[in-house]
Amino acid sequence: MKILVINCGSSSLKYQLLDMDGEKLLAKGLCERIGIDGHLQHKPQNGKPVFDENIDLPTHTEAIAAVLDKLTSPEYGVVESMSEIGAVGHRVVHGGEKFAASVLIDDEVLAAIEECNPLAPLHNPANITGIQACAAVMGDVPQVAVFDTAFHQSMPGKAYMYAIPYEYYSDLKVRRYGFHGTSHRYVSARAAELLGKPIEELKLISCHMGNGSSICAIDGGKSVDTSMGFTPIAGLPMGTRCGDIDVSVLEYLCQNTGKTVSEITNILNKKSGVLGISGVSSDFRDLGKAASEGNERASLALDMFHYAVAKTIGAYAAAMNGVDGIIFTAGIGENGPDTRAAICGYLGYLGVEICPKCNQKRGEDIVISTAGSKVAVMVIPTNEELVIARDTKALVEK
Ligand code: ADP
Fold first, then answer.
1. How far is ligand 1, taken at its centre, from the CA of residue 239, in Å?
2. Same domain for 133 and 276?
3. What is the pTM of this model?
4. Ligand 1: which residue has its CA nearest to atom 14?
5. Tens of pLDDT along 311-347?
6. Cα gap 325→317, rounded to integer Å
7. How many domains does the chain have?
8. 202 Cα–ligand 1 center, Å
9. Cβ atoms within 10 A of the Cβ of 386, count?
10. Residue 219 sits in which domain range?
11. How many CA atoms lie within 13 Å of 162's alpha carbon, on the beta-carbon side?
12. pLDDT (tens digit, 9 = 90+) per residue, 79-95?
């Protein structure tokens, strides 16, 4: 079965077409500036040329139509016709408390996803638009929703509740949800394979470190705590997000800058994190370079990030009463040996010891701890699209 995986944003749409016989990537690409003007980059994996041009994309429906046109075209295509695509899997950001697993989409499910819109007002409406656009262009091909939040629905109340009046939870659904669930689920399952042990017997800590970063405590294959919260701003300082701060800062900043709550919230989301501290960049490659050239604020930003990750790992080792494996994944986790070494430098008390040579390897599932390390430390490239395609296949074939 061939499965189209869609990750739809408000003005963008990322896609991959996978052949699930052998889990092979057939093509991938990206539509950008949808509703503004439009650009499509399409990369077939069969040796045909890349298409990378501005094209008119007034809505997501035209974007899906353009993607299907390229996937089936003689010049850029990887399949003969649309009928070869057996199902579509969508990344959906927020499934609230309604969805603890992926689900086949019907009208009732779509309505339930829509009910979660207030919890992710920037993301969920865009995800729904993608689902509707596929239905408009592809007819009744089965569609599946895979939620960023679903994996974390196994967290116990003591981990997901905020200590605020209970009605804010019961009436307004304010609680920790957590995100990056698809990634944490994938890398923890791979870690168990890599370690040759059943996941049910493992206590794992997964560090997804990209533009957005989150850490997850996974006990016996289930998420028991995670660092992002009601929204993705919580937890670690990130590229541009502040991570955990004292909530009183919000009112104080409003009073002292004359800015509104939304303006300050926007600053905390888009101009904070390592960008805000360093004044240099949100990109860890730029920060590393600036720090090596003596930029103290860049060094401080990196130190703050390493310290926050190490503190969270310590907290989750305590929460699970131990840890067997620590996983690094996503842009920084997969490509930042210095970051991994700096974080592991805090973890000697857990018996963590990494092998400097293994830590320099790239692009593969590897154990980077020494044979004597009490905790296995692993680098596992994430693959959220593959999880979405697998879940889609499983639900469609059920
Ligand atoms: P997103 O959350 O957007 O999916 P990614 O997982 O792609 O983000 O991660 C982006 C981050 O990964 C950026 O901060 C970037 O600097 C970092 N990164 C990418 N390549 C490297 C590298 N070679 N060394 C260090 N950091 C890297």
1. 9
2. no
3. 0.95
4. 283
5. 999 999 999 999 999 999 999 999 999 999 999 999 9
6. 10
7. 2
8. 28
9. 18
10. 196-384
11. 20
12. 999 999 999 999 999 99
